[in-house]
DNA sequence: CTGTTAGCGCCTTCAT
DNA sequence: ATGAAGGCGCTAACAG
């Protein structure tokens, strides 16, 4: 109720007008000072302005600046799942690039909820971000209508979105899947299970699975005979389905282990996880079923390189996550600056990190 | 090169003026509609406005609204280290609460760099966020001058900051450390090493270490005799120092294992990690040194409950991370709304999750 | 070199 | 029930 009698509440931040008054000059000069048009200011005036700013602890209001000049240096970073270390790593690259380019990333976490994704996109739009980097859930274009061709510039990360033409940067899934599969074949494995979450909706999963199948079906040409490849869908969102899938895998492992005539890796089944969450779920299950020494019966290879990989000794395909994030921002920045080329694809190579799991 | 020389660039978003014109009315009515002052609008006008908004795909500019009404519903969330799963989990709670309260969190990741922290704080301030939640690096007050008493409302998470009076929410470190230590003592361990990153600067680490030492020094009263407690500082930021510290631990483990007269857990040394990053580093080292069966010689107990804990079978103290984040936002919201009570402490209990590591 | 003026998109009295 | 006018904090022409 009290007016300005007591400065109990936060003592309103100083505005450019306050500074102008304090420095005994006009707002324009302050503005010029703020924008580094230092050449057009007498040293004397400049000093006065500096002092006034100091005294008032003045900090220009970005919102107002943004409103005026029509851009606020904000970009949105929409992440499907921060729980996945992949996301955090990409984020680091994004942050570094933003820092370098004078951008401020608004990080939004959809937590695997389509509804959240929609909501955040709308919010970003409303805050007039200059562009967005989207690590989308596996959804069709409609939910991200505001971005892309018609709306604000967008760059996709890891996954493309059906019907949305936009730059995309991510792993070279095809090459990486081949790398992994060949590593297993070269290691002597003859039964390989590719385990992946439902993949129809998510382009990266689709590509990985397809490349795996292709290598498996053409491998006779590479001198390998009678190797079998299977694809197993693991729906982590549904515990019941997950159980069923795991049971199927168990049967295969048990069967393989009971074959008498085989030795070495030919007797072990190899499991190729399409990403870290899948690998974790598999490892937990296998450990629960076969005990601490589960890797004696199963070899595990996984996309991503989570922090526990080294501890467990599983082989992985590490993605150049930092660079993915960095490049995404660079692409976006170009778009913001008006570059009009056709949609670009930036596929970065993965790195195979061989550990005990596949090389004993 | 361009067909329609006009709409080549993004077709400027519609403004409230456009909508007013389209609906054949004044800006005021549009504004009223947007703010739900539906009672003061004839159904007929309302319908026209609705239609106009649809047609123009109009979305009010939050920046402008914020500028005008002096608040933008933005809050800052400053995180010391997103790489630590703790942060991501807290974040989930923060997001949920923001969602519920109509706030939009600006997530800033300091990546363990004091300079970053300073920079982001300054940035948040210029964007005129209404408050900040700070999971600070271990720094003194000065770097976060803009917040707290003098500046915008702030709530601390996990760690207090010397010289800054503000609400704080986090784990009840004292109780949790006691819980863990007693668990080890009850399990028969007689040599316990508390391993922690440099803790002078970080209140939570300090509290944990102090509580550990206190329990160890008063335990004779609890009927336990001759148990030894040691504190080992592991400076993860410095590889060399880390090596040295680990070597010291190794010597202790080797010595304990060579004692003839002891059996069971009395022969194993227990290591109590002050957080997940420390636990991971320890586990990696121990595995490298003692092989896959390292837990036969060392029991590991850790604060935090990282995803690999179950896989490795180490005992942990899980923090109520989600709730911590949620409560932090609630506190902040109250402050934003003007609540003036003295600084509050919200200490939430941890949960001991016993696994094979400490119970074989 | 420096100040004046006119908005950016929106909300808010204050009239009508 | 509706609209006109002024201003939030700042920048960008224009003068001088």
Automatic annotation (TrEMBL), chains A, B:
The yes or no answer to whether the keyword Plastid is present is no
| Recorded superkingdom | Bacteria
Q: Which UniProt keywords apply?
A: DNA-binding, Transcription, Transcription regulation
Please state every residue range assigned to the domain named HTH lacI-type.
Answer: 14-69
Return the annotated region ranges for Disordered: 1-21
Name the Gene Ontology molecular function terms of this record.
DNA-binding transcription factor activity; transcription cis-regulatory region binding
PROSITE patterns the UniProt entry points to: HTH_CROC1, HTH_LACI_2
Which intervals carry biased composition (Low complexity)? 1-10
InterPro entries cross-referenced by the UniProt entry: Cro/C1-type_HTH (IPR001387), HTH_LacI (IPR000843), LacI/GalR-like_sensor (IPR046335), Lambda_DNA-bd_dom_sf (IPR010982), Peripla_BP_I (IPR028082)
SUPFAM superfamilies to which the protein is assigned, alphabetical: lambda repressor-like DNA-binding domains (SSF47413), Periplasmic binding protein-like I (SSF53822)
The HTH cro/C1-type domain covers 15-59
This chain's protein is named HTH-type transcriptional regulator KdgR
Instruction: List the source organism.
Output: Paraburkholderia rhynchosiae
């Amino acid at each position: 109720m009290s007016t300005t009698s007591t400065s109990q509440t936060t003592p309103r931040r100083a505005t450019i007008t306050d500074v102008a008054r304090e420095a005994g000059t006009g707002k324009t000069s302050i503005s010029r000072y703020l924008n580094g048009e230092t050449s057009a200011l007498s040293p004397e005036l400049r000093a006065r302005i500096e002092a006034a700013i100091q005294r008032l602890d003045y900090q220009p209001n970005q919102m107002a600046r943004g409103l005026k000049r029509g851009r606020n240096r904000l970009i949105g970073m929409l992440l499907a799942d921060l729980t996945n270390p992949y996301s955090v790593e990409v984020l680091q690259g994004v942050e570094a690039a933003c820092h370098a380019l004078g951008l401020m990333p608004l990080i939004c976490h959809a937590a695997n909820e389509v509804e959240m994704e929609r909501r955040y996109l709308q919010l970003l739009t409303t805050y007039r971000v200059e562009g967005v980097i989207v690590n989308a859930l596996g959804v069709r274009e409609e939910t991200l209508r505001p971005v892309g061709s018609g709306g604000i510039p967008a760059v996709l990360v890891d996954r493309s979105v059906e019907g949305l033409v936009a730059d995309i940067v991510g792993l070279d899934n095809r090459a990486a899947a081949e790398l992994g599969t060949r590593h297993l074949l070269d290691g002597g494995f003859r039964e390989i299970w590719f385990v992946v979450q439902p993949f129809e909706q998510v382009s990266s999963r689709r590509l990985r699975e397809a490349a795996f199948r292709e290598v498996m079906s053409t491998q006779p040409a590479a001198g390998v005979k009678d190797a079998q490849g299977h694809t197993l869908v693991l729906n982590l969102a549904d515990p019941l389905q997950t159980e069923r899938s795991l049971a199927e895998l168990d049967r295969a492992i048990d069967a393989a282990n009971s074959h008498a005539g085989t030795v070495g890796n030919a007797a072990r089944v190899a499991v190729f996880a399409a990403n870290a969450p899948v690998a974790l779920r598999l490892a937990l299950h296998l450990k629960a079923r076969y005990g601490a020494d589960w890797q004696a019966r199963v070899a595990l290879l996984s996309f991503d390189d989570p922090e526990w990989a080294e501890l467990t000794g599983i082989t992985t395909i590490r993605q150049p996550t930092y660079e993915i994030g960095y490049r995404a921002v660079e692409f976006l920045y170009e778009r913001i600056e008006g570059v009009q080329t056709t949609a670009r694809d930036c596929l970065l190579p993965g790195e195979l990190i061989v550990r005990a799991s596949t090389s004993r």
